[in-house]
Amino acid sequence: MNLRMKSLAASTILSLGLISGPALAEELRFTVWTGSEAHLKMLNEIAESFKATKPDVTVRFETIPAADYTQKLTFQLAGGNPPDLGWMMEDAAPTFAAAGVLMDLGPTLREAEGYDFADYSEPALGLWTKAETVYGVPFSTSPFMIFYNKTLFDEAGLEDPLQLAASGKWNMDTFQEVAKTIKDKTGKWGFEFKDGQGYESRIMHALMPPIRAHGGDVWANGECGFDKPEAVQAVQQLHDMVFKDKSIVPPGEQGDYFSGSSAMTINQISRASKMPEAGFEWGIAPLPSGPAGESPVIGQAAIVVFERGEQKELAAEFVAHMTNKENVAKMAQFFPPARKSVLESDAFTSANAIIPAEQMAHVSDAIAKGKVLPSHEKSPQILAAMAPRVDTLWKPDAEVKQALAGVCAAIEPLL
Amino acid sequence: MADTLTDKTSARPWRAPRLSLRRREAIEAWLFVSPTVAGFLVFFLGPLLAVMYFSLTEWNLLTQEATFVGVKNYVDALSVNPDFWHVLRNSFVFAIGLVPLNMTLALTLALALSRPFRGVVFFRTVFFAPVVTSAVAWAIVWRFLLQGEAGAVNQLLASVGIDGPNWLREPDWAMVAVIVTRVIKMVGLNMILYIAALQAIPRDYEAAARLEGASNWQIFRMVIWPLLAPTTLVIFVITMIGSFKVFDHIYLMTGGGPENGTLVLAFYIYEQGFKFFNVGYASALAMIMFVIVLVLTVIQMTLRRKDMR
Amino acid sequence: MTLTTRQARLVSRTCLIIALSVVAVPFVFPFLWMVSSGFKSATEIFGQPSLIPRVWRWQNYLELLEYQPFARQYFNSLYIAVAVTVLTLAISSLAGYALARMRFAGAGLLMLFLLSALMVPEEVTIIPNFFLIRSMGLMDTHAPLILLPVFGSHGVMATFLMRQYFLAIPKELEEAGRMDGLSRFGIWWRIALPMSRPALAAVSIITFLFSWNLFLEPLVFISSLEKFTLPLALSNFTDSYGLPLWHLQLAATSLAVVPILIVYLIAQRQIIESFALSGVKG
Q1: What is the ipTM of this complex?
Q2: Where are the alpha helices (DSSP H) in B116-260?
Q3: Per-residue pLDDT tens digits for B145-156
Q4: Across the A/C interface, how many CB contacts are shorter than 8 Å?
Q5: What's the CATH number for C68-236?
Q6: CA B281 to chain centre
């Protein structure tokens, strides 16, 4: 009887499997936000090499546009249509970890042969681990760098940021000076916030670098840092640049570094792939230092496995494969690694086809010294609460101190 | 047999067959409406009841955990959460700004374009064109045109000596901008409805009034306007509901900003439910929205009924 | 100086045309700007504003097709809009006919219920519908984009429009059909429907546009690129890092808008006539 029941159940499962398609059982769905052919080619190569140990497993990389990535992922998870694994940005990590939708990868990674989990630097894992639990493995630990338009600097008769950095003069004050000179001499903008979205979706990316350079923080240990003197000083300087010097692309205006209308911007090295077609000479330099010295800011993204996926064990094994030494070295051509061994190797600095080794050295330096962008379990709410207050900041006659106090009042209950 | 199937209101001597005929007609009728009814139950009534239930729970979209909390979400919305009244105010400002502007412009354009003249086709097409354009396209273009300094709108204003505001970065101007661009986008539909209604008014009415020496304005006020009343009601209700449910336009033009100046109810519901995962709270907001729209529609219909008497 | 009636008419007509032309500017300019920018390079869009591109970049149109499955997405929007329109016509005209012409218990109550559906915005029911669609296993399919408009408040509106029109059809014609031995269904199909072409046309136009421009539902239900509809696809012209590709986006926007405008231009007289003849006037 028992046997009959079992065989009945087995045949039911079998027929269900047939209905939903036979290939499904061996295919992993992996969501990413890149649509770049070069990136996808590399990812597919890594998936192909997984077949050495798992011949029947294929990985399908599914591109979700970056702008809506976290939102669409939410719809898929809540909609009962979860991918097996995917990329995740740092600002979403705590929210998703707290909701219990991310699988603990710790056991799989620690057991994986030749994986050497300890090779990952602890600060780099900070956001992705809680005690022994590992929610994700960072594949991109990419510092914010200054991208500059050398052609415009030459036109204005200025030393470029890389030269200034070499002579130790690259700080927030010279940053403000050169931006103003560019604006006055060339009529182009001196600086554009990351992707031109500093007043909207990238508020944090706009404010973090100067605040850290001044030795402040946006929040820490449940306390808001926006209204501390360091932060106020930093933001006041930005405010002056926007409204007094008029050297930063102001709110409501579209100025685009990549099409040559701003002399500097902040971005990550993966963006360098846009540069060859830009039509001007360019370079990468570290962020300007501030009163608190150098304080690089790092944006992070990790690979996570979703708890509700049907093949999470297999997915976890693929993560172990994808983030082993060999593959991390391979991905380093686009994504700065969090593995110490790869980071310290010459291979990393010379891996990038577009960026000279001298400039890449600044990148690895920044990774070593930098701190990851702040994140929080309630990131979406905090950002939404912040946004309207930050809007009051970006007006010509705004009282910076008062506006920042308003930001703190809005987010403190959520911290 | 065909004979007995004729008009059911005419006198019938036999009782029994008539009853069964009526039953047959009822069965047929229910068959005719059954797709509508089924869809209504599954995709409308069911979900509406579900929203009522959800609104009494605390429900996280991601963890999918729900706990019953009674009217807490309503209390939160009405008295605890500082955003709610602000959002409600925005929704009303949007509707109060949009509905009269839209309807006045629609009627004016319709009056100008209801009679044929050389070029009428061109103008009708021009004013209707934005209606067939997707809201996404519309928002993309207007965001460019409304930039602070480089935008075409401000450059045009500058050429006549006006220093235009930074439209989408100042809360009040942003509201003006979203209302006006929405009106330009949607007014064509109402215009067409009014043109259709105007063309259905017999010419004799107007001619008779003119013979009695009525001025253009009197003809409009005494003859045309009353005859347009049913159309006006339909247009009002559609436009009003449409202005309360505006989502895509806000999502794409301002994202609710700046300073939450254009954060309207429909967008707020979306944000709460799908961005912050508060399904319960979002459902309570949805119920409040339902009640508001219902009340406004009922008021308008009752007023009109009184009017008719 | 006095004007003849003819002169007076000429003057007033000229004034009218001038006034209309001024009002038309904000209606026309966005289209001109959109189409012209679709031929520019990203750099030029940010440069000195001008309606004529300095360099015509036809390759924008090729690049946008390479960038995402735009043709496929275009087709998605098209076939979904057609499906929604056909289904809405069938279902709303059936129900509208029954509500206009047949007597049955519960008709009054049904009308009241449907009327209430007319007042409920999609935003109110989107969350439970999200769970409903999930439980039906229809996430990331086009089914919700077809089902929800057909059965939602838009479908109800169509039903009312059809009912209104059927009420105005002379009963005698249907009686003649009955004499010929037609069933109810036959009367609806052979007599009522052919007579209500203007109403069907009006409902088709409104429904097609409604589906064509649908944004919230695709945003919530669709996640795969190749299943996107046009509104989603248009907002998705960003490079692999989320930066907007303005020139491609504007070229794609022109591609999405211009054909519809041309269809409208060709059919505009019939469109207005059908609105005039249908019950839409209220």
Answers
A1: 0.85
A2: 120-132, 135-145, 152-159, 171-199, 203-211, 216-218, 225-244, 248-253
A3: 898 777 889 888
A4: 75
A5: 1.10.3720.10
A6: 24
